[in-house]
């Protein structure tokens, strides 16, 4: 018995359409390569000062994991993860299968029979089905389910629907061509889907040839369009994952002293330009962005799309600049958008392909600050920090006034193990001073050996760096390091996640902990007894600089769960999806633009849980959310309290709490 196989180029043969097809294939490939070359040249205008290819083995692993198996996406949105797996793997198998067919038809067909042939036909059928299913899910999702992330479309998006339609047409025509061939009497063998469709289609050689030609032409069009449309993400997205940052929570640093921030596209990293091609306009970043949700002009998705559009418009088809002085400001983001960013990191956390929108904004801020064009409120903020070491411009000699009547040890006159870095929020803001005072009693109870710098404490520089004043950050850091050296500080704990973040990730030679870690250890080993029930329904707001920046999601919850009587309820958006309070990146001291402020939105989300306490773990969140709760008129039924205050109430009882 003859091994199963089939006639290659059935119904077409090596006729004129076949040779035309080859000529067009060559043209499509040349157009594709020209587009790739153009973007390669554009990429070369940008900076190359961060090693994006170190630890290559690890990089390849997470590219496979997140770029080809969509694990990151699958665990967040299983349906979307599945959709991408179906589309990508359907596409990959069909492409490889088509290459095999080409080799068999034009070079050597001896291998294309028997078991190999049967597997090939079965896999091609399954891959086609997978691709079709994936595309149907994509269409339903985009045009019927319409998740909120699609609610604000980039105004220049023209090819979303066209790309889906093109792929759908290619896939459907592929099945139709196969089915007509089978309908002619060619054995289907393992091509069971083609066989099923063949029952619905007539055998018509003319129709077959027409559909074969259209199918081939559209497939070639697809190849040619990749670098010029949204389809670029097919190639750019895996490369973007491969070159993701290994910096962790630390901000981008540029060691070249002549670097004055990002003013033109060439001031960005080449990887940012690659990211603009990789962005597939999924809207996940925008959906979680407090600035977008507040109705400001900032959208991290628009940022990436505008960057690509700006480059497209200002470089010719060979990748040569058409004109000098193309500015990022007003082309990719306007002034309001640049300063509306709260540096909450939600965009970067949500982006399935690790785009660094927030870092681009940070570099643009630096460019604006270095040019002396920062808005007046940002200039005031920086002047206040520079002169008084706090964002409000409170006299720096008042920094330790909160501890006046308390027995709080100072570094200058005591032995200590830990430096307590109090931070501006707890030192100067009246509401947060109450928290600091309660913490003193807790620290004394658990017997921590600590001291504060008092008036010698400065500003940690976290938010100064986030508004782009790198020079001032370096000055503050030098001053703080000098103070640490003066008093032999090797370990510190911070009461603000902002300070904790910069000490942990951007300072050297000092071990930084967050205060809740100290408290949690004391609860665990019995030094702090939580005796009194706190009969409250509590929802916890994750501070961005604790959660998304430093991955500390569970520890505050563990503390709350350890307090007897507390019923912990979650807001719909929690942990890595927590919605920012709006106080980061300099916005604590600014009049926030937009028609619905982030703290109001978050207060409503907390109110929706029915909680009577909105628990925070950050002085900035305390300020922002107390304001939001009042503005939303929720303050008669929901209090904003620091986790430290709830611990205090449980440790020392409500009577003492009231004193
Ligand atoms: S860091 Fe936050 S505020 Fe800034 S663009 Fe990203 S999501 Fe928006
Ligand atoms: S930047 Fe990332 S999350 Fe935002 S739209 Fe593009 S791909 Fe999606």
From TrEMBL:
Location of the 4Fe-4S ferredoxin-type domain: 270-301
Transmembrane segments: 20-40, 82-105, 117-140, 161-180, 210-228
Top-level division of the source organism's lineage: Archaea
Membrane topology of the entry: Multi-pass membrane protein
InterPro entries listed in its UniProt record: 4Fe4S_Fe-S-bd (IPR017896), 4Fe4S_Fe_S_CS (IPR017900), Cys_rich_dom (IPR004017), HdrC_iron-sulfur_subunit (IPR051460), Helical_ferredxn (IPR009051), NarG-like_domain (IPR023234), NarG-like_sf (IPR036197)
Coiled coil (residue ranges): none
Keyword set includes Methyltransferase: no
Signal peptide limits: none
MF GO annotations: 4 iron, 4 sulfur cluster binding; metal ion binding; oxidoreductase activity
GO CC terms in record: plasma membrane
Annotated keywords: 4Fe-4S, Cell membrane, Iron, Iron-sulfur, Membrane, Metal-binding, Oxidoreductase, Transmembrane, Transmembrane helix
Location of the protein in the cell: Cell membrane
Main location: membrane
Family (UniProt): Belongs to the HdrC family.
Protein name: Fe-S oxidoreductase
